[in-house]
């Protein structure tokens, strides 16, 4: 626990230093921020938008917005979460303007119990151990609705805590857990149908 707190403290300190350097106009500081977070920005925007040209353009918009509003970053959460929040906001606004569906309608046959079952035993890392299975898993993830792809990316690939994802997306923690549960359930169904992975 102490190591985690220490790591978080170091990360927050590094975040503040980078933000201060950008705000002070230090040469190369903003470019460093872009280099550090461009992969995260691309994954978030692309998970929602799914069009490379739009994603490229929207990522530029994300970093322009970050440059204009970085003075609003207060260090209350990791800079990564703040950047993710800006990227989500830009991408979601794009989806709204295009009137594209973000998620499949949910039927709550299992009620609120779903929100407590995020760790339901499905190990994404173990499922990607085999190359062939990894290709099937990637295709299965691609078939999910944008919001579920985004939440899987933030939670499993970016390893963001649920609370940070909630701040980044504006979704309630219970909603995020429910989407994660449903998306993993859907992945299991797809993989079982394609290659016989047991549910």
Q: Layout of SSEs?
A:
Layout (H helix, E strand, L loop, with lengths): L1 H22 L5 H21 L2 H18 L9 H20 L25 H4 L3 H12 L3 H12 L4 H8 L3 H23 L4
Annotation keywords:
2 domains; Butyryl-CoA Dehydrogenase, subunit A, domain 3; mainly alpha; 9 helices; 0% strand
How would you describe this structure to a colleague?
- The structure is a single chain.
- With 199 residues, the chain is an all-alpha fold.
- It folds into two domains: 2-98, Orthogonal Bundle (Rna Polymerase Sigma Factor, Chain: A); 111-195, Butyryl-CoA Dehydrogenase, subunit A, domain 3, CATH 1.20.140.160.
- Helix content is 70%, strand content 0%.
- The protein is elongated, with a radius of gyration of 18 Å.
- 29% of the residues are buried.
Oligomeric form of this entry? single chain
Biggest sheet character: none
Distance between the termini: 34 Å
Output mean pLDDT. Answer: 77
